[in-house]
Amino acid sequence: MATSTSSKTQVTRSERKLARQKRDRRKKSLMKKAYEYSKMCNADICVGIRIRESGHVFIFSADASNFWSFVGSQLGSYYPTPFHKTERDL
């Protein structure tokens, strides 16, 4: 019986790993799409993603006019510290 419990745990771990990888791919894709939109439409873009499970915040900013700069300053005291990405990071 102990083996069935550990195999269930193993399946759960692999499922979590796959779900995390899928989430990260979607996050990266969303940020790339936002960057493409900012270039094609000459728009200032700010995308914020908060992972509920861990509380991590990811902010992507493609902002030539600094219109969205207040977002970073407001989240400066947030814990865990937000991850800031710009168009140079993609």
UniProtKB/TrEMBL annotation:
What molecular functions are annotated in GO for this chain?
Answer: DNA binding; protein dimerization activity
Cited InterPro entries: TF_MADSbox, TF_MADSbox_sf
* Occurrences of domain MADS-box (ranges): 25-58
The subcellular location is: Nucleus
Q: Which GO terms describe its cellular component?
A: nucleus
Bias-annotated ranges (Polar residues): 1-12
Q: Which GO terms describe its biological process?
A: positive regulation of transcription by RNA polymerase II
Instruction: Using the UniProt record, give the first listed, main subcellular location.
Output: nucleus
Extract the ranges annotated as region (Disordered): 1-27
Q: List keywords of the entry alphabetically.
A: DNA-binding, Nucleus, Transcription, Transcription regulation
- Name the UniProt record assigns to this protein: MADS-box domain-containing protein
Species of the source: Penicillium capsulatum
